[in-house]
Amino acid sequence: MSYRQGTLAGSKSYLASPQGRALPITEEGKELVVRVDDSGVAQTGHLWVHFRNPRDEFFYQINNPSGDETKQRTLTPFRINTYAKPGRGAFSKAGRLIALIPDLLCFFLFVTSFAALAHAQSPVQGDLLAEAKSLFQQAKFAEADHSVRQYLKDHPDSAEGHFLLGHILFREIQAQAVLEGQFQSQAHGSMGSARAAASSPQAPPVSTTAQEMAKSSLDEFTAGARFHDPSAADLKVVAFDYVLLGDYPDADKWLAKMLEWAPNDSEGWYYFGRTKYNQNRFAEAISAFQRCLRLDPQNVKAEDNLGLSFAGLGRNDEAAAAYKQAIAWQEQSLEKNPGPYIDLGSLLIDGSRPQEAVPFLVRAIEIAPRESRAHELLGKAYLRMDDFPKAQTELEKAIELSPQTPNLHCMLAPVYRKQGLAEKAKAEYDRCAALTGTHSIPETPRQ
Fold this sequence. Notes:
The chain is α+β, with helices and mostly antiparallel strands. The chain contains 16 helices and seven strands. Helix 10 (316-329) runs antiparallel to helix 11. The longest helix is centred in the middle third of the chain and has 18 residues, at 208-225. The chain is elongated, with a radius of gyration of 26 Å. The two termini are 44 Å apart.
């Protein structure tokens, strides 16, 4: 079915789907003017909206000037740039943030899946768009940005141009690595420590520039959708733009829509599971990760996050089994992920089994020596075992890697005190208090 996007009530955008034919809708005063193509002949009519449910569905009528009887259709909401909803800040608080996946920063390869341009292009103009695509493929995003903007000056109604610019803006943000802090990892720990995606000390905050670029990317996808359907690949990037804005409910919504169109996209199911986890919807996260694993067997990250989701429901035996399975799958791999080792170590510490946790945490540090969370947990395990010198060494290393994380200073202070290092203990208590203030103490991030 073909769709075109129109506008209604100012900034709200919708798709029209009358009998499978597209209706380009434009706003004209207080009415919406519609081009009707039911018989192959373009006609002009007026559209009046009759609200049934403003949030979900409403009907409209077309008065066809050719004398045909009035027809009734349905409009389905399709809003993209909803980052400035009334009564809602630019950032939504996520529940707990889960596994940092560095490949999110380089996952997306542009797929040309857009329809032909609505208007004829001169050779020079066509070359300009082709040049922008080529530059994009070469990861020359600044140059691609310039070329496609030049193209859009002459072709403001080009869906392909707007969608391409939306992708380029997202990739420019990726190049700055700001997404790393948005899907920051969390080993299984206190299930009561909720986190704010864009403000907590353990996750590098997304810069104002990146936030504005994410909004601009959403604007381009919205502009393109006025002239052509977005693809599943487009909606995936829309969802990631919302991740950058800390808006996990909207990221969830667009990943869900994307998966309706591309149900065999294993990566889509993986990130869908992560957005569910971030909203504390652990049962749904489990289903999403299991779907990912059916499509992509032995996906270590999905299995690890499946374990985190089981842990979120208190199903610790299943969580441990998932972590161990993820570890087994990567034993023969040259590239190893420290996540399953960290998560299993954390689970064992919480289960009062610190001695069993130590070898897993040591292995995590061998894989990722600058993983602050692994050093913290190993220090915690040694502390539970009353091995204060080793606990001190690991906690000091964790602080070296994450100096602004207050709970590390809070943990190190009593380790100093128990070894008779009163002045150092006082300094760490003071630092802990200064960093904590009146806020809850977050856990240490993974890098």
